[in-house]
Amino acid sequence: MEMSIIEKSPKHLRSIAEKIFEGKRISSEDGITLYKEGEPGFLGILANHVRENKNGSYVYFNRNLHIEPTNLCVFDCKFCSYSRLLKQKGDADSWEMTDEQILETIKNHNQNITEVHIVGGVHPKMDLYYFANLFKQIKSFRPDLHIKAFTAVEVEYMFRKAKVDYKKGFQILKEHGLDSIPGGGAEIFDTKIRKQICEDKCTSEQWLDIHETAHELGIHSNATVLYGHIESFENRINHMERLRKLQDKTKGFNCFIPLKFRNANNQMSHIKEISVIEDLRNYAISRIFLDNIPHLKAYWPMIGKSTAQLALQFGVDDLDGTINDSTKIYSMAGAEDQNPSMNTEQLVDLIKQAGKIPAERDTLYNVITDYSKEIPAVQG
Ligand code: V47
Ligand code: SF4
Question: Whose CA is nearest to atom 28 of ligand 1?
């Protein structure tokens, strides 16, 4: 069956498939050909081959808590449904958490979480020393809790305001407890597209420089792409090519997360969302192209649980976490699930139904529970 799909493909597609089966890197041109011509069945076989080599049949997840300190933002990204401009401060749908509220949220949360993920709008008062102090307080009562915080966009603003360079800024945050940074804010690196969808925030070069500096200091990170709006296949491949090049140098990216553009309640609502088939093809090509990034994540609060489950056949090996608070980024952008939450039992079932092996991980992919080896008491 597998061979027949590959064998009956045109010669130029078969030669790309051969490279992949031989463990060779595909070129940007190959990547564009796959986007233009690769059928889902063909791409699924190749992506699954790559994921089996890297991660076997494991599908990873973690127990995490998302905190979004504010949705007030100095920037005005056209695709963003979540942020509110400063003039909307005080409106019913804008919020600002105090440091006490953030600390209380963590203290009151289920103690078996291993990670807190802190991202939000870029508040005009966003202060490096304030957050450094907050991290210190978090670590004082949960020293083992991994703090994954601030996209490159937030970091660029915060360090610029504090008048420190990226290295110094990260050194300060790290000393106070920052462990890693998430992958947001990358959007699309192409300058022309970036200008149309998010012209006022950090540039692509700054995003890449910030991640490079973090990696040099031993701070791991993730990378994202925002796809399915006005970008071309060439733009997507160019985006991944720049990430692949940086990863060759630093090896600091843990995971790649394609983020599907959702069109509700934003300035790009006139753009139609792409199909699930296109999502699956995109996961597969990302897995094949980014041969040096160990993991590929389907972020289920954004894409939905069913598509995330399907994506496990298209190279995905990570489903983020058992989010049982509410991240609002996607519910406000039109995701089906308005209160995204899944407990461990539901996540484990979803993975098993897809014929894969669930594994709870920490942020750095050390396995905490391998579900092929034991049946632990399931906790919520
Ligand atoms: O940078 C905003 C995206 C990102 C929309 O590192 C949208 O583990 C689709 O990066 N449609 C922030 N996407 C979230 C993010 C993230 C999420 C989960 C895990 C990790 C990780 C990172 O959300 C933004 C932007 O690309 N976004 N609006 C929208 N309408
Ligand atoms: Fe602000 Fe981030 Fe929304 Fe852009 S995507 S407007 S930086 S919250």
Answer: 80
What's the pTM value of the predicted model, to 2 decimals?
Answer: 0.94
Ligand 2 atom nearest to CA at 201: 7
Query: What is the Å distance from ligand 1's center to 15 Cα?
Result: 35
Clarify whether residues 134 and 18 are in a common domain.
no
Query: What is the residue with the minimal CA distance to atom 4 of ligand 1?
Result: 184
Q: In terms of domains, do 25 and 140 share one?
A: no
Please tell me the distance from the alpha carbon of residue 49 to that of residue 278, in angstroms, as a whole number.
Answer: 20
Nearest to 224 by CA among 186, 260, 194, 278: 186
Number of domains, the chain: 2
Q: 361 CB contacts (<8 Å, ≥6 apart)?
A: 60, 61, 62, 367, 368
CA 258 to chain centre: 7
29/74 same-domain check: no
pLDDT of residue 327: 53
Quick one: pLDDT at residue 335? 66
Same domain, 82 and 21: no
Pairwise CA distance, residues 337 & 264, whole Å:
13
Question: Is residue 233 within 8 Å of 195, Cβ to Cβ?
Answer: no
Q: Are the C-beta atoms of residues 347 and 322 closer than 8 Å to each other? A: yes
- Report the amino acid identity of residue 62: N
Provide the 3-class DSSP secondary structure of residue 58.
strand
Note the pLDDT tens digit of each residue in 242-281: 999 999 999 999 999 999 999 998 999 999 999 999 999 9
CA-nearest residue for atom 5, ligand 2, is: 80
Q: What does DSSP say about strands 295-296 and 253-260: parallel, antiparallel, or unpaired? A: parallel
C-alpha of residue 375 to centroid of ligand 2, in Å = 41
Q: Are residues 155 and 277 in the same domain?
A: yes
